Amino acid sequence: MNEREVARELLRELLAQHNNNATGNGGPPPQVPPPPVAAVHRPSSWQQAEGVTIASDADLERFVRALADRMEDPAERAAIRDGRRRFTLGGAAAPAPSAAAGTVRVERGAVTERTVADAARKGARLVVGPRAVLTPLAREKARAAGVEIERER
Predict the structure, then answer these.
(1) CA torsion sign, 142 to 94 to 104 to 125?
(2) How confident is the model at residue 128 (pLDDT cuts 50, 70, 90)?
């Protein structure tokens, strides 16, 4: 028997002893199902996020006033501060690219996701010149943000 086989045999014996001690009956250790991913990342005290639509200054003013009213209640204030009361931006669609919004033109070099994010923020379409390279991440970002990409030949 060489050293490797001796080490394997020793490990088998130690693992068998460990399993016998852990279960108390010599059988396999009890299997505990893993918790759902959401439960691992989100405490059970969290509530569903509240959608907030802010499409104008008036909407923002309304939200801030409602939030100030909620902060008067100590329990609500604690929930907001602790992150148990969450808010998500919802209902506000990104502006559609229009002719008035213009274009973002890249003549050469790499078109990165930062370039796409700038175009999305401006509501512009992206024009990629023949000497420019569109990265795969930028292509995905453009698809997700709804930025139109035009390639020049």
Answers:
(1) positive
(2) very high
What is the pLDDT averaged over residues 125-134? 91
Dihedral sign for Cα 101, 93, 120, 127, please. Answer: negative
Residue 87 has pLDDT above 70, yes or no: yes
Q: How many domains does the chain have?
A: 3
> Are 44 and 69 in the same domain?
yes
Which residue is listed with tokens 């213009």? 102
Q: At what angle do helices 136-145 and 113-122 cross, to 10 degrees?
A: 20
In this structure, the answer to whether residues 83 and 42 fall within a common structural domain is yes
Query: Which amino acid would we find at residue 141?
Result: K
Across the chain, mean pLDDT equals 77
Strand pairing category for 149-151 and 125-134: parallel
Domain match, 15 and 41 both: no
For the beta carbon of residue 132, count every other beta carbon within 10 angstroms: 18
**Residues spanned by the domain of 54:** 37-89
Q: Which pLDDT value is given to residue 93?
A: 45
